[in-house]
Amino acid sequence: MKTSCYVIGAAYSGTTLFNTVMDTQPGVRGIGEAVRHIHRGPNRQHPWCASCNGERDKCDRTPDIKGSNIHEAFFKQYPDTNVLIDISKSWDNCFQHQKTHHYIKIISMVKDPHAFAWSQYKHFIRTERKRDVQECFDAWLHHYRSAQMLYDRHCGFTLRNRQEDPYPLLNADDIMPITYTEFVTQTAATVERVCAFLGVPFDADAMSRWYEPSDTCCVGGNQAVYAQRNNPTFFTKAHNYLDGKYHGKHRQIFQDTTWLGDEQFMLDAADCYQNNKKALRPLTMTSGLGKLSECVKRLRTP
């Protein structure tokens, strides 16, 4: 049976990299933020295809989508595919706008609160918007608190009204947590575990060539990650982009720890851990990050 695998996670949590790496595996296609972007309709900005680096509507690999079953169109476009990876991130993006009869599995991807806050904080500076460290921690809390409530509700741990609720009823073993740290530091082992979860073979050799171009129509996502496939010169010129985070990183999967060079950020993040420990403590455990004290330790010793 065909499987729709949705990756639920906050923005800047490594989902685009995960999508790119999983796209290398036999029978798996990483279609990016397909549901999130395609359902927006013709009055919104046209989504772009990361594979051909142009508008999706002009991509010769794009499926002919009719109705709300976006994934069905992708399965028809790629008949050799058994699993679609969709990184549309939020529960609503994945299910409210996507009607599917395929088997559903969920990957919950999470960064340490401080690592997420650093990524969001730097992106807001880059786009000349203001968001302080506490607001970034608040965004992490909002996303994973909401996600945990939905996991509980849709795995049958809490009551719900099926007539009013269009979302699927899942089994607890249909949800797999992955941390960003384990993915980037133990990539092969993590991908092998995900493949077993999805019921597909693991191909280590194919995974090692994750940076090579793909023929999958991949919609939206982090352009800096997709540059690994279609714009390698980016990594020789990215001196100023996010303080040189990607400079010299072509063909590399790496953990961003550049916050270690910003003492004020680390002080603010430590304060956020202290001030929000009651709200953070249960979420770091249920999301797979471990004890809150372990997250705090990784702030200074990643």
Q: Would you kindly provide a written description of the structure presented here, covering whatever features stand out?
A:
The protein has 302 residues and is an alpha/beta fold. It has one domain: Rossmann fold (3-Layer(aba) Sandwich), CATH 3.40.50. Helix content is 43%, strand content 11%. It has a five-stranded parallel sheet, sandwiched between helices. Strands 3-4 form a two-stranded antiparallel ribbon. Helix 5 crosses helix 6, helix 6 packs across helix 13 and helix 12 packs antiparallel against helix 14. It starts with a strand and ends with a helix. About 2% of the residues have low confidence.
Descriptive tags:
single chain, alpha/beta, Rossmann fold, five-stranded parallel β-sheet, 7 strands, globular
What is the CATH first-level class name? Alpha Beta
Low-confidence stretches: 158-163
- Please describe the biggest sheet, giving its number of strands, its sense, and whether it closes into a barrel: 5 strands, parallel
| Spatial order of strands in the largest sheet | 2-5-1-6-7
Please, how many helices? 14
**Termini separation (Å)?**
40 Å
Helix content: 40-55%
Structural class: alpha/beta
Number of strand segments: 7
Strand content: 5-15%
Query: Mind telling me which CATH architecture this is?
Result: 3-Layer(aba) Sandwich
Order of helices and strands: EHEHEEHEHEHHEHHHHHHHH
Overall structural domain count: 1
Mean pLDDT value: 88
